[in-house]
Amino acid sequence: MAMPNASVLFTPLISNKFVCYSSLQSSNHIPYTLPRFVSKGCKFVGCGSAVPKLQISNDDLAKIVDTNDEWISSRTGIRNRRVLSGNENLTTLAVEAAGKALEMAKVDPDDIDLILMCTSTPDDLFGNGPKIQKELGIKKSVLAYDITAACSGFLLGLISAASHIRGSGFQNVLVIGADAISRFVDWTDRGSCILFGDAAGAVLVQACNPEEDGLFSFDVHSDGDGLRHLNATLKESEAANAFDPNASLLDFPPRRSAYSCIQMNGKHVLRFAVRNVPQSIESALSKAGLSVSSIDWLLLHQANERIIDSVANRLEVGREKVIRNIENYGNTSAASIPLALDEGVRSGKIKEGQTIASAGFGAGLTWASAIFRWC
C-alpha cells in the first residue's frame, strides 16, 4: 500500500506564535489534518512565604564566634536570620508558603497539575515534592518532584513551569523555593555562619492566552569548574568498617557517608556574581526586546548586599528600583527570590502589570535570569 504524500506548513497564529499542521493526501484524495498545537502563555497569579519562628541576630552569633554586629552588617548587609527549631521542618514551611500562594490566586489545591519543589536541603534524600502534595491535601496523583540548584533553583523552577505549561498543557503549576541551609552550616566558622538562614517561598504559575504571557525571556548557565568554590560534598565516615576487615571484601560494605558543612570561597563567589549576573540579565533583556530602563524592579538572589549593589550599579539601576530584604533573613538559598517577591507584593510595592528582572546565582556554579510580569 502506497504511503500518502505529506507537506508541513507553518502558519502565523498571532504575533510571533505559530500553528503547525500537516496536510496529508492519500491516493483517493481524502484530506487528513493532524491536530493543531497552540502554544499557551503563562502568568504569575499568587505568591506566599513562610519563615521559622526562631530569629538569630548578629549579637546572638557574637556569643559563639568571634564577630560583632558592625562587622557582619557592614560586609553583608545582614542583621538577622531565621533558623528552624523545635518541631519545625522544611516541609511545614513549604506547605505554609504554598497555601498562601494558592489563597492569593484563589485556586483549590486539587486544581494543581504539577508541584516543583526547588530545594537542596530536603527533609528526605529522595525528595520533598510528593510530601508537599500529601500535606496540601491533594487527592489526585499529580506529579511532584524536586529541582536541586540551590540559589538558582527557584528561577529554574519558574522556567520549568513555563515549559510544562507551554509544551505539555499543564494549567496550574506550583513552584516552591525552600531551603534549610542551617543544617549544613559550620556554626564555628565566622566566614560562613553569618550568611545563611532558612525560609520558603512559593508562586503559582497559571496557563493563559499567548497574548497575556508573563514570562518574557530567560537566560541560564552552569559551570562545573566553579564547584570547588561553593559546595557541600559527600564525605565518607572515618569510622572503621563495622565488619572484621579480615573477613570482608576489600572496601565492602562501604562506610556510611554524610554531607559536609558548606565550604565557600566568598571572594571568588562575589567576583563571579558581579561579573556574570549583569551579563545574564542583559542577555535576557535582549531576548525580550527590552532595555534596562523598561523594568520596574530588579530582584536578585539575596546573597550579600555588596553583590546586590554592585550588580545594580553595573546595570545602572537606581537603588529605589531594587527589591531587598537581606537585612532580616540573610541568604535563604532557593527561598530567597520568592520570599522577597512575596513581601514586595503584599506590601504593595510590586504592583500588577509591573516588569521584574530577576537573577539567581550560586552553588554548582549555576546562574539564571528571567524577565517576567507580575500578574
UniProtKB/TrEMBL annotation:
Signal peptide annotation: none
GO BP annotation list: fatty acid biosynthetic process
Database matches in SUPFAM superfamilies: Thiolase-like
Gene Ontology, cellular component aspect: chloroplast
Residue ranges crossing the lipid bilayer per the database entry: none
Keywords: Fatty acid biosynthesis, Fatty acid metabolism, Lipid biosynthesis, Lipid metabolism, Transferase
One MF term in the entry's GO annotations: 3-oxoacyl-[acyl-carrier-protein] synthase activity
EC number: 2.3.1.180
Pathway recorded for this protein: Lipid metabolism; fatty acid biosynthesis
InterPro entries the UniProt entry points to: ACP_syn_III_C, ACP_syn_III_N, FabH, Thiolase-like
Pfam families on file: ACP_syn_III (PF08545), ACP_syn_III_C (PF08541)
Keyword Transferase: yes
Span of domain Beta-ketoacyl-[acyl-carrier-protein] synthase III C-terminal: 285-374
Catalysis: reaction(s): malonyl-[ACP] + acetyl-CoA + H(+) = 3-oxobutanoyl-[ACP] + CO2 + CoA
Beta-ketoacyl-[acyl-carrier-protein] synthase III N-terminal domain boundaries: 145-224
Protein family (similarity comment): Belongs to the thiolase-like superfamily. FabH family.
Job of this protein: Catalyzes the condensation reaction of fatty acid synthesis by the addition to an acyl acceptor of two carbons from malonyl-ACP. KAS III catalyzes the first condensation reaction which initiates fatty acid synthesis and may therefore play a role in governing the total rate of fatty acid production. Possesses both acetoacetyl-ACP synthase and acetyl transacylase activities.
Protein name: beta-ketoacyl-[acyl-carrier-protein] synthase III
Lineage: Eukaryota, Viridiplantae, Streptophyta, Embryophyta, Tracheophyta
